[in-house]
Structure formats: C-alpha cells, structure tokens
Design a protein that fits this description.
single chain; 129 residues; mainly alpha; 7 helices; 0% strand; elongated
C-alpha cells in the first residue's frame, strides 16, 4: 500500500511547492512575477479609468486623501492601487496616512495621469503655455 505522492515544483526556480499551495509558483516567484491573473484581469477592466469626482477643493493637495478618495470611488484595494501605480502596498498605506509624501514632480505627474486626474489635483501647478 505504498502511495505515490507527486512532488510539485515551481517551474521558475524548482523549489518544492507545499501541498497547501494552489498556485503553480512558489511565493517568492509569485511576488517577483507580479500580480496574479485575477488581479491583472480586474485592473484591465479599469483600463480607461473613470474620472472620479475628486477636485482640489474637496481633497486639497493632500495626496494621501486623494488616493484614499480615489480608492473609495473606484472600489480598489490598496494592493490593486499599488499594482496600478507601480508602488508597494505598504508605501500606499503610508501615503494615505500622511506618513510619507511624494515631492518628485515627474512621479506626481505620472500618478495624476494613471488615475485620470488633473495635475492640479495632486498639488502641481498647471504648465505655463
């Protein structure tokens, strides 16, 4: 009565997978590859992001408040927003709580573009013509 147990291995690094791991990849490889297909599919449905009702008067130039309000309006998790912006989830949390700020103009412009917000909403002055 010898039962043959198939040992599953991660195709990326050949690490042995736990029986409780439903994924094909091990944890470190999953994090290195990026979001899983379900999260990527959910973010793909947001491709043309709806313009939320956020204005600078409502949220002010406080980036954390803007991100929190945007997530509430679009029903995104911090992880979804971090995948969308290319930042880590803990960093999104720190931004929302006001523990970190972003002062880099290029990064603020990128965030405004990705969220479909005017640059003035994230505290930037309009470009001079």
């Amino acid at each position: 009565m010898n039962t043959v147990v198939e040992i599953r291995r991660c195709p990326r690094c050949s690490a042995r997978l736990s029986r409780s791991n439903p994924d094909r990849l091990c944890g470190p490889c999953r994090r290195a590859v990026g979001p899983d297909d379900r999260r990527a599919a959910r973010l793909a449905t947001l491709a043309p992001l709806p313009a939320p009702e956020t204005t600078t008067e409502e949220a002010g130039p406080d980036l954390g408040g803007i991100l929190r309000k945007f997530r509430a309006e679009t029903r995104l998790t911090q992880q979804d927003l971090s995948d969308l912006l290319g930042l880590s989830q803990p960093y999104i949390s720190l931004l929302e709580r006001g523990k970190r700020t972003i002062r880099d103009v290029t990064q603020l412009r990128r965030i405004a573009r990705l969220l479909g917000l005017p640059e003035t909403a994230v505290g930037l002055l309009p470009l001079a013509a």
